[in-house]
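[09:14] KT: can someone run the structure on this one? pasting the chain below
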Amino acid sequence: MARLGPPEAPLPRARRGGRRPRVPASLAVLSAFLLVCALSACDPIPDRPDGGTDEEPTTPPASAAPMDPAEVAAAESTPVDPTWLCRPGEEKAPSTSTTGGTLTPLSVRAEGNDLEVSGPFHLEPEQEYRGFTPSGVLLPAHPENRGVPAPGWDEQLGVEGAPVPPIVVRERVEVAGDGPAPSAVTARLTLGTCDDAPLPDGQYLLRLSGGDLDGPGRREAGWGAREDVLVDVVGGAAEAVPGAVSAPSGEIPADLSPLHCGATLAPRGDGDGLGVEVAEPTTEVSTVVPDEEVGSSVGAEVTATSPDLGSMGLFHAVVLTDPGTGTVVAGARNATTIPLQWMDADGVTRTERAWTSQGACGPDALGPGTYEAHGAVAAVDADGATHIVLSKPWTVTVVEEDPAT
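[09:31] RB: done, structure tokens below
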């Protein structure tokens, strides 16, 4: 097991697949957490002022200062044998329990084939820390929900008949230790494939775990991550997902307040390189709902483009405004989260509608008149900020008679 050497400055994050390097907001959260951890590791908790002696639960293991991510980045890696995954059933799969402790992922850093995940580390009572040896399995993401594994990949791997993961861990940094566990840790892994081919592009989930714990009776124990970590591969290089570390629901928080009912429609943020175009827009709609239709609406194909390729929180909409006030009157969006979608060089196109016969702002249906329509795209950047860009407007007329007559 390699011990950490003197700290060195980590390599700067290179731009991969067109994504511009950014320092994610989660790193700021992690830094604040590390500071709190460091202080709490030094300052004792004062006695109760009333001298009470309430019965306490089992004392949790003591915590040491947080692990230094820079030292981990500078440390020598140890090879990992992935045979149990690459040739399922030929070698026994690791059987270490993951109930002895928990890593809560807060930040992800990726460069080339190297991946670092950092966050608070907690041991369960009666567990003893003997070092930090991370391991992980890369699972393809579900095509309809970025935050969960694809069908067939949430079963036990490494057994006869199991699928072979397209990406495996080939190296890791192992940290020697004996005593209090670090209050926060960094798992550094080097990714590869079973046949030493380039990393295949796609959306993946990293399921982290590790060993080097002694449980009750000095039984070998291990730890697991609280949630799967989002990882993209774009152009053969690993990337973090902007604004998200984990997303079990497949969605991440976003601020869509400029699209609320009655809000003044306007762009938000600097756009973060987003582009938006519309095709086949509706220009006239009737207050009379056609037979066999659920309602009348203004529709368009809305295409979002970006120089940053890979997964991103992305949202499409068609919104109608009152041309006199610029406020949203139909197509309002009040959601607080948006889905993670895959952005490629051709962009992402969705057919969107703003309903005019029901669900409008104020009166349930829009009355006859002239309105202004926009295609809108919202995205979340690496700092967690929401950007909204608008297409060129077009005029929509709502008429009382059926336009087909």
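[09:33] KT: thanks! The two ends are 80 Å apart (CA to CA).
[09:34] RB: yep, looked fine to me
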